[in-house]
């Protein structure tokens, strides 16, 4: 029962229903106003024309009527021969004598006292047979003349117009409802189809999309936008699934290594205690790798969330990051930092950008090499450049190094510990601040990472 009521309510809220109801309402109002106007004008026109007829008769009687009963009779017979059925005249002479224009007139005037008034038109009277008459009276030479003009034809005409109006109104309502219903069904039909398709849609099936209707334009636009959103969502989903697979894979390797060495100690620790220190150092190394990996994964997860920004001294952040890493650095370092460069953002983000780039330069450059860190502002942009004289990155690998978990030639970097996440974090962070990062070669040997931020706060 409740469900029925909800479906009924839902039906009432559909565009089709609302459009039909409103359109029919409008149609009925328009037809009614038009009918009332036509009826009103016709009634007034007919009333005025009858009034004119009565005035004409009155004028002609005033001009031609005499004092005597005979004279009156003559005049009335003359008038009566022309329009005996149209006019009924009653003359009461001062002598008390009464003259009628015809036998009909006599009958009607005998009932005169019982005649009723028609609504607001006090000049229209009804007989018991419900025949309408226009009423007028005047005095002439002591005689009281009363006129009745038959209005039956006029009332017939009004009746016919009234019936026609009712008929047209009904026809408009029926036809109008059918046409509007069909029309609005066509309009909202594409929305209904769209709703059904969305309900049936399987997001993981990349081939499924919404059908784009030719009309109406609005629904066509919504369908296109929906398909674009769907596409973006699918790319995002795929990326997330890939990320979970890669992350589990990366986590499994160090865990397997740790478990292997724990088992080795358990099995042979007692009989061959010399394996213990080597295994422990492996466990230490692998658990450290795990710790770094988990930290970076957590950082990656946090990147999608909202963050508060504040005004930051970027020059200071870069300098402090280098100072922190300098202790572990074996290479020579050249620092060229312009002071007083400010940005709007979060300290952690800029720290991560600088730390990952400088750490990579340290990892992939031999101890005798040189690392250069430059920060300066030019033409409203901020440039952070980290250069090294290390092993370099082959051209075909340059685009891939920013992908999550990607490491250039695993055999080459197997000696160097790493997760393959660092540069993807850097790229995401840089893009978060509408900046860009490019990687180029340093001749004769080495790599150069240039980060550009477009805005600068003074
Ligand atoms: P990783 O933890 O492996 O360093 P990154 O995402 O930071 O992960 O880097 C991805 C890959 O890019 C590295 O494995 C390395 O092969 C390459 N790479 C990054 N920085 C440098 C660099 N300064 N010189 C040479 N190769 C680099």
Automatic annotation (TrEMBL):
Regions annotated as coiled coil: none
Pfam families with a match to the protein in the record: HATPase_c, HisKA
Bilayer-crossing regions: 21-44, 157-179
CC per GO annotation: plasma membrane
Keyword terms: Kinase, Membrane, Phosphoprotein, Transferase, Transmembrane, Transmembrane helix, Two-component regulatory system
InterPro entries with a match to the protein in the record: HATPase_C_sf, HATPase_dom, His_kinase_dom, HisK_dim/P_dom, HisK_dim/P_sf, Sig_transdc_His_kin-like_C, TCS_sensor_his_kinase
Name of the protein this chain belongs to: histidine kinase
Organism: Enterococcus rotai
């Amino acid at each position: 029962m409740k469900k029925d009521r909800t479906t009924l309510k839902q039906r009432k809220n559909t565009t089709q229903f609302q459009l039909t109801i409103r359109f029919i309402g409008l149609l009925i109002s328009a037809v009614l106003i038009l009918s009332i106007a036509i009826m009103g004008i016709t009634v007034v026109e007919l009333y005025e024309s009858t009034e004119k007829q009565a005035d004409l008769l009155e004028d002609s009687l005033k001009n031609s009527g005499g004092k005597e009963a005979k004279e009156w009779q003559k005049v009335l017979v003359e008038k009566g021969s022309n329009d005996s059925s149209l006019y009924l005249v009653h003359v009461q002479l001062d002598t008390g004598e009464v003259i009628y224009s015809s036998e009909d007139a006599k009958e009607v005037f005998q009932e005169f006292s019982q005649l009723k008034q028609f609504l607001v038109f006090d000049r229209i009277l009804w007989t018991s047979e419900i025949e309408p008459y226009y009423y007028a009276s005047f005095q002439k030479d002591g005689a009281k003349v009363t006129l009745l003009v038959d209005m039956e034809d006029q009332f017939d005409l009004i009746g016919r117009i009234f019936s026609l109006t009712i008929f047209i109104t009904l026809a408009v309502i029926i036809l109008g409802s059918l046409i509007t219903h069909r029309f609005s069904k066509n309009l909202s039909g594409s929305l209904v189809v769209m709703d059904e398709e969305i309900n049936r849609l399987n997001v993981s099936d990349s081939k499924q999309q919404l059908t784009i209707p030719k009309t109406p334009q609005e629904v066509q636009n919504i369908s296109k936008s929906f398909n674009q959103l769907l596409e973006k969502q699918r790319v995002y989903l795929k990326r997330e699934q890939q990320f979970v697979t890669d992350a589990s894979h990366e986590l499994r390797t160090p865990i397997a290594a740790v478990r292997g060495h724990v088992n080795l100690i358990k099995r042979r620790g007692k009989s061959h205690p010399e394996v213990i220190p080597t295994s422990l150092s492996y466990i230490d190394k692998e658990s450290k790798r795990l710790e770094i990996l988990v930290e970076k994964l957590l950082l990656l997860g946090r990147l999608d969330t909202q963050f508060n920004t504040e005004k930051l001294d970027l020059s200071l952040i870069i300098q402090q990051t280098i100072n922190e890493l300098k202790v572990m650095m074996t290479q020579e370092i050249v620092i060229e930092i312009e002071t007083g460069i400010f940005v709007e953002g979060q300290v952690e983000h800029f720290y991560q950008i600088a730390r990952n780039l400088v750490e990579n330069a340290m990892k992939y450059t031999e101890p005798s090499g040189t690392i250069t860190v430059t920060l300066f502002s030019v033409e409203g942009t901020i440039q952070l450049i980290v250069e090294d004289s290390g092993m370099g990155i082959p051209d075909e690998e340059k685009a891939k190094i920013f992908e999550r978990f990607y490491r250039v030639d695993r055999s080459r970097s197997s000696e160097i510990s790493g997760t393959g996440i660092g540069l993807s974090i850097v790229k995401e962070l840089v893009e978060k601040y509408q900046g860009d990062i490019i990687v180029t070669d340093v001749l004769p040997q080495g790599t150069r990472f240039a980060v550009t931020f477009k805005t600068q706060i003074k």
